[in-house]
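Checklist before submission:
- one chain only
- standard amino acids only
- sequence pasted in full

Submission:
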Amino acid sequence: MAGKLAIAATDNGDFFGDLKRLGFTEYEAKIYVQLLRMPPSTAYEISKGANVPRPNTYHALEALAQRGAVLPVSENPVRYVAAAPHEFLTAISHQTRALCTDLAERLAALSPAADDQYVWTLRGDAAVHSKIETLIAGSRESVWVKASDTVLRRHTEALRAAALRGIDIFIVLFGPDAEEFRFSETCRVYIHEGNGVRMGTADNLFTLAIDHVETLTAAVEGEVIAAHTRNRPIVNMAESLVRHDYYMAEIFARFGTQIDEAFGPYLRDLRLACFSPEQVASFKQRTGLG
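Returned file contents:
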């Protein structure tokens, strides 16, 4: 029994924290959750069940009713019920999205022309991958990517939608199956160096260029961190990275045996001559070569 109570308390804490992030006060969050569990209830019952002082209960109920989170359903005494979570939170989502869109446009009018020299840092898995989704969805001409198949799978639907819009999709893939990401005739996919094996720490990066005007580069293993910019030289550098890996993929497809004979498998002799100790260790672990 004690274990169940502890779990319930933990769940409540999560609910309360998330509701407060949506603009609820602590008392409003407690009352809304209480009403979901025990509808309909009087202010006295709510106050007692949610452990909220009665004067604060009345004030919070009035505020919640104004935003459509609760509804009085009887008189003498007045009883309240909570709005259905899916409907209520979906309405908040739509209202917030509309407000943010309108506010962004109005605030943008206050600013001078955007300075494309800045490089913005994003941290955390959710923030980085949300930005990737946004960039792909907003593409108008091209999406160039160098990435592993495990990362690209998280954005399959966004890439597919872009391909169906006629966007030029250009992918250098770490992975064995190029066909997995050929969603339409506009998709060109090349296996990195003909084998798709990741060898050095640089191969753990995700590189994305959109419409030849902005880029995002991310470390997606361990601490997830990304840099996003419209800085022209950096965008050119990102596109050059993807472009030259495409060159290498085509060269390996035609001359792979001769290249292996000259430099060893996976360009071993070239790589080991310039890799850092960390990259050397990663190369040996992934390839089994000394």
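Reviewer check: The first strand starts at residue 41 and ends at 42.
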